């Protein structure tokens, strides 16, 4: 009984650690799968851009995004390797423990067999019982002989069970070693690809630097277009915000929002960090102010959202329940869908077709449109605003 309790206590301590490792491995596998998808999307985009000489800057952005994804993939693989190494060490210790137990059980069983063999003549057993000085002693001697036979059977069972457990652990060790070898091979392959991508990035930087005048003219034109688009979108959302605030009026005569808007706003805010991504893709332009990737003394216009490279024909989906307030066409952004979530707004842009119309109620995950191919590029732009203040979508969308 005491031995059983010790085993159960040991298992109770080991199982949470094993469960945690399994959970970590599953999370890492999911992360690695997602990063591999992003890299595949970026590779396809780069392949389609290869024939367009005017897209060097876009290609540089794509290559650098791919480098970031590749570095994350290598980091995730390194973490997987550490977990595998730890599991292998634990498995080896378990095998050593089981082997020691097996050896102890086998040695004890051998002693029992030798003892039984020496006293194999049944007449000696009978004489041993009959030679008892009292009935009580006779029963005790009989009980001892009977328990000896029972102990031999139990010991044989324990040896078989330990042997089976030992084989299972040995097979598990082989599996872990194979997984470790495959992971090391993958890391080596990813590092080779990373070096090639870094060389490609450097080549593009040199090319852009050598044609500085030409690319700066293109840059100035794109920057003006970006700033103009930012102003149009900000103006669009400001007007919608004013409409929302005109939903009712208090005693003071000031405009107030409706109770439904307040409830929706609170629900939206409570899901910060847990909203689903509107598309599956790789981020190529992040929120905020950034320096030019080549001309470091040049500031790029404020990016009020995130831009993702996506597969051709990707569906854009609503990130939360809301109401479609506007569908507009903006140069460079094509069709844009603006969805109201109380005091919050989400903008889905660079769409070829839309699946909703103004006034429609949309649910989380509902398709709002199909991403367009503009200039040979499949890019989706998403923005999230709190009233008239742009928010970093990455802080609101789930990891």
Radius of gyration: 35 Å
Molecular shape: elongated
H/E series? HHHHHEEHEEEEEEEEEE
Write down the overall mean pLDDT.
76
Q: What structural class should be given to the helix and strand makeup?
A: alpha+beta
How many angstroms does the end-to-end distance come to? 48 Å
Number of distinct helices = 6
**Biggest sheet descriptor:** 10 strands, antiparallel
Low-confidence stretches: 1-15, 120-130, 248-257
Percent helix: 55-70%
Give an account of the 3D structure.
- It is a single chain.
- The chain has six helices and twelve strands.
- The protein has 399 residues and is of the alpha+beta class.
- The strands form two sheets. Strands 3, 4, 5, 6, 7, 8, 9, 10, 11 and 12 form a ten-stranded antiparallel sheet that branches.
- α1 (2-49) packs antiparallel against α2.
Quick rundown:
The protein has 399 residues and is α+β, with helices and mostly antiparallel strands. The protein contains 6 helices and 12 strands.
List keywords for this structure.
single chain, 399 residues, alpha+beta, 10-stranded antiparallel β-sheet, two-stranded antiparallel sheet, 6 helices, disordered N terminus
């Amino acid at each position: 009984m005491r031995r059983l309790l010790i085993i159960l206590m040991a298992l109770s301590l080991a199982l949470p650690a094993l469960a945690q490792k399994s959970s970590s491995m599953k999370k890492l596998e999911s992360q690695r799968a997602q990063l591999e998808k992003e890299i595949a999307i970026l590779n396809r985009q780069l392949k389609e851009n290869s024939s367009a000489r005017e897209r060097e800057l876009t290609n540089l952005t794509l290559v650098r995004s791919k480098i970031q994804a590749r570095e994350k993939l290598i980091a995730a693989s390194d973490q997987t390797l550490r977990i595998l190494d730890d599991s292998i060490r634990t498995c080896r210790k378990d095998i050593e423990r089981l082997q020691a137990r097996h050896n102890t059980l086998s040695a004890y069983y051998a002693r029992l067999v030798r003892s039984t063999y020496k006293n194999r003549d049944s007449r000696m057993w009978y004489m041993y019982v009959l030679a008892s000085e009292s009935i009580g002693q006779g029963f005790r001697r009989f009980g001892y002989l009977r328990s000896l036979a029972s102990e031999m059977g139990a010991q044989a069972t324990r040896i078989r069970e330990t042997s089976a457990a030992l084989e299972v652990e040995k097979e598990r060790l082989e599996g872990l070693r194979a997984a470790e070898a495959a992971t090391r091979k993958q890391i080596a392959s990813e590092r080779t690809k990373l070096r090639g991508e870094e060389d490609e990035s450097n080549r593009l930087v040199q090319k852009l630097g050598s044609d500085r005048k030409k690319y700066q003219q293109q840059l100035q034109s794109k920057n003006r277009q970006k700033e103009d688009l930012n102003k149009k979108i900000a103006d669009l959302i400001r007007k919608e915000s004013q409409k929302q605030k005109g939903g009712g009026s208090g005693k003071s005569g000031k405009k107030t929002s409706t109770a439904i808007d307040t409830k929706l706003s609170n629900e939206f805010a409570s899901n910060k960090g847990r909203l689903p991504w509107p598309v599956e893709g790789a981020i190529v332009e992040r929120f905020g102010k950034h320096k030019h990737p080549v001309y470091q003394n040049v500031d790029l216009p404020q990016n009020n959202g995130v831009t993702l490279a996506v597969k051709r024909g990707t569906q854009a989906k609503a990130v939360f329940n809301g109401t479609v307030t506007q569908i507009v066409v903006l140069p460079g952004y094509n069709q844009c869908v603006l969805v109201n979530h109380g005091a919050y707004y989400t903008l889905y842009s660079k769409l070829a077709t839309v699946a909703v119309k103004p006034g429609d109620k949309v649910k989380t995950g509902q398709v709002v449109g199909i991403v367009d191919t503009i200039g040979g590029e499949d890019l989706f732009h998403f923005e999230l605003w709190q009233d008239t203040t742009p928010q970093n979508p990455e802080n609101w969308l789930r990891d």
